Amino acid sequence: MSRHSILVLSLYEEDYMYATFEHLMSSMRAVATVKLVTSAKEAKSILLSDTPPTAVLSIDAAPTDAKYVALNYQLVRFAKAGGTVVFGCNFSNHFAFGSDGPFFRAWGLTWNLGEYHRTTVYLNKNGVPGMALAGLEPSYSVKALNLAKVPTNLAVYSPSSSSRTQSHVFPPTSVDTSQAPFAYTAIGAGFMGYAGDVNAEAPTTKVIMAMLHLSVDQVGPDRRNRNPPSRPMFGPGWFNGGTDTSSVQYIPEPVRVIPSRVTPTTPRPREAEVEARAARRKIVDQRKREAADEVKEKGNDLFKVGNYDEAVKLYKQASKIYKPLPAYMLNLAAAYIKLERWSEAEIAADDAILVDPTLLKAYFRRARARKCDGKYVGAIRDIKQCLKMSPNCADFKTELAATRRERDAKNGFDGDKYEAEDEKNEDSEDRRYKASLMFGLGREFIPESTLHVLDCPSDSEDYEHQGRKDRQVKSPCRNYNHEGCQLGKGCRYKHAPDGRSVRDELGRNVCLHFLINRCKSGDECSYAHEKLYLPSNGWWNDENLGGWQELYDFVNQELADGGFDRIGSAMNGTADIWRIRTNLDLLVKDWTRATEGSLYQSPDEHNNDEEDDDDDDDNNDSEDGEDWSHEKEMEERERNMGFSDLELNELLSHGLKPWDDDAWDVLHAIRNDHA
């Protein structure tokens, strides 16, 4: 019998996840020829070749993406011709709600995405057509994205009536026994399988092997480290010891609860829609959190062996997969400190403090970064904060004295008088500092607290929809933000959030101009004009509107070049934390000078206001000019029924009006002819 050949699709190129599935990959290589491809073009070429593979394993969710719809149909044809296609590994982690319908319909199936939880599941005693179940575990605990509407005879595993959800946070509850984490079905002369396990459990390796018609007898023991050591903490001993790592301690990171959104006490008319959407978002949130934590742990492993550059990349990757949690930012700060990239370490620690100002380690690491960068006033303030939180720590007292001595030695004079002046102006400095933070993440304020809620970006079709590319329209869809748009991804207008709106709990984009009482469009505005479905603890309900109205007025007066787009992404929380500080540094300084007058600044800080630029994430720098000119274009399109002034003039020159039904089609044809 010829050796099986397996084509592994990794079109999203999530190579940071490969180690997670190494147990499966090594097991497959033991009994089959395995080829991994990252290009749809190459995959299609192999599938259409004279020697196609015996089976295909997609380890990410690319086939559910509209971008790869042609490849998905190619996989369907491959299966119908006698091949086997399995979707597993990291596939379910990014399988977005809303994309399941089109995906499964292409396969001729009525399956849908179901619940997401961990529970104990049991092997189908009656067998599954086309799949050998011998050697599979009779039952095991698995966290998975389940499928609904799977016929009983096609469910490889399913929960029993005694199965309960298994969580470290929530109490056990019953589960839907009609849903299945693993399913397998005939497609023409071949087969298609789904493995919804999100954690790559060891028994799942055998399940996927069986789906691919590979012998499970060759599956060896899982030697992956399923419980890596806790992430590093650098205590005062390490701080005093410079770069000596002998005193590095590994202790568990305490769980810190970020306050949840405040829910309204009076029921809202569309509350059921809000709850349904929140439930879907929760599933996405959980999946992204787990994927991000996996990446963070890989970063920890690299940190421990001294590979700090790669650790930085993984900590930042974790922040982008999910959101910049304090745990990720603290680890990032530690790695930057090891690399002596002081400014970046300061920013990372600063972001951790922004989310949770009770983190002693964040102040401590920021103090280290500031001290090494010559920013002694800030370093001393941070060490004093550490002493407030831990008054009896002798190491902090020693470090405070050492930092003062280093400051005085560098400046050539006694800095106590400047420190006293700094204490005197502490309130003013705090206002300046908080003004800077306003641009960091665009937080939603909890009453009487600086804590804020971080949002995990959605991966829904509407969240990603920027308008049909062939229409070249950046205007928001008024129907989507008001009555609702029925065109979906076929709509020529934008459904995605942008720097001029904030997403509400119905998924609509609410006008930021409206929220600060500065919208001139009124009922004609393309964005929603309603706060009812925004979180009630947002800055939009503060008496002073979070200071944004004041800042907007200042920006409009002082900066004519797209000023609003400089602050919009900070107001709604979509700002890229790796770019926003550099882009808005001058704006923050101008604003604080205008609102507070000249602030005290010690001699050592006069030449240390460096603009930070992350070498790892310069890809977006070219977009800044486009973002800042976006406001002018948006105003043109709102005025011209979606057309820019240039497009409108082009239409008029051909005898067309912007309200003509075929205006867009004609404009598109004209431009194609010119091209």
From TrEMBL:
GO terms for molecular function: zinc ion binding. One of its GO terms (cellular component) is protein folding chaperone complex. Pfam families: TPR_19. Residues 419-428, 607-626 have a biased composition (Acidic residues). SUPFAM superfamilies: TPR-like. Residues 410-429, 597-641 are annotated as: Disordered. This is C3H1-type domain-containing protein.
